[in-house]
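Key result, reporting period 2: structure in, sequence out.
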């Protein structure tokens, strides 16, 4: 059974950093694109970043470029999201998700597997 589990969320002050982890199991990660999504209260779920497990190609939403970095550890079947210079508007539940696709980021309506999410709160 495929599983994704996020960890690393929490409360941080503006300008601070967090590192989210997405551990995976039960499927062949190599063939998937992994995406990080977030959903703030009253807003739609939006894509934040994604990475190709096969070749490491990455992409970012404009709102996080230069602040967030996505990476993968194939041996550990894990994907990470390093978030620096956090802003209050980054406050949301963050989800990792997997789609068996190549050449584009995962899309919410075609995701194969979702994690349960981890809360990130940026507040002073």
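The corresponding designed sequence is given below.
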């Amino acid at each position: 059974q495929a599983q994704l589990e996020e960890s690393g969320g929490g409360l941080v002050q503006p300008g601070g950093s967090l590192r989210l982890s997405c551990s995976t199991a039960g499927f062949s990660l190599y063939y998937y694109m992994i995406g990080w999504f977030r959903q703030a209260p009253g807003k739609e779920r939006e894509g934040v970043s994604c990475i190709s497990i096969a070749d490491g190609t990455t992409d970012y939403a404009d709102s996080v470029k230069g602040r967030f970095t996505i990476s993968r550890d194939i041996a550990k079947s894990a994907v990470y999201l390093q978030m620096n210079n956090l802003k209050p508007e980054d406050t949301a539940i963050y989800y990792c998700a997997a789609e068996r696709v190549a050449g584009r980021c995962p899309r919410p309506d075609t995701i194969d597997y979702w994690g349960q999410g981890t809360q990130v709160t940026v507040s002073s």
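The first strand starts at residue 3 and ends at 7. The CA atoms of residues 80 and 86 lie 16 Å apart. This case is discussed further under Risks and Mitigation.
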